[in-house]
Amino acid sequence: CLEQVLKGSGYGDVPQETLVIADIVIRHFPSMRYITAGRSMYQRPEGKDRLSLGEATELWTGVYTSARPSNWGLILNVDESHTAFYEEQPVLDFVAKTLRLNNITPNYSLRDSDRMV
Fold this sequence. Notes:
Blueprint (H helix, E strand, L loop, with lengths): L1 H6 L8 H18 L1 E3 L2 E3 L8 E4 L2 E14 L2 E14 L4 H8 L13 H4 L2
């Protein structure tokens, strides 16, 4: 059935399993190189490309890919994708930002009110 799709025939009766296999094959190598979230792949932004969203998160841009049958054979659909990731940072800094704590040090102990957040 995959051979029919690649040749452009059998467009209307392509089993879903055939498309799933094509998706897996197409996405295999890129998924080893990029960070995947759902069906999208992202590359960590560097330097001036970083866009903070606040709350210790930043915007990442990536691509969504999927294999689709067509009258011309199997085509690759590629769309731009955006999502929020937590900023890369030490855990202590993340806790301080999330709890809006100033002057946090390695010996800092949380108040009971901070633990309830």
